[in-house]
Design a protein that fits this description.
Layout lengths: L9 E7 L4 E6 L3 E4 L7 H4 L10 H9 L13
Parallel strand pairs: 1-3
Antiparallel strand pairs: 1-2
Length: 76
């Protein structure tokens, strides 16, 4: 590694708007974020699919899928 070209590396605190605090190392002293893994809907399991103009239903009909995403059996 070349000397004097790398940035300083600090012990830092990442603070989320929800109040979660994470201790880590970074090139920036203190970081404030609006959303973290503690409050993000994807990680908390509270994510909702928004059906815009029936696109999900249209996709399911097109590919013959049921509510759980499995192929519907073809009955004669």
């Amino acid at each position: 590694m070349k000397p004097k070209i790398h940035p300083k590396y600090y012990e830092t605190t990442i603070t989320c708007a929800c109040g979660n605090v994470i201790e880590t190392r970074c090139t920036v002293k203190d970081v404030r974020v609006e959303i973290c893994s503690n409050c993000h809907p994807f990680f908390t399991g509270k994510q909702k699919l928004v059906d815009t103009a029936g696109r999900i239903d249209r996709f399911r009909r097109k590919y013959g899928l049921d509510e759980k995403g499995k192929k519907k059996s073809k009955e004669s």
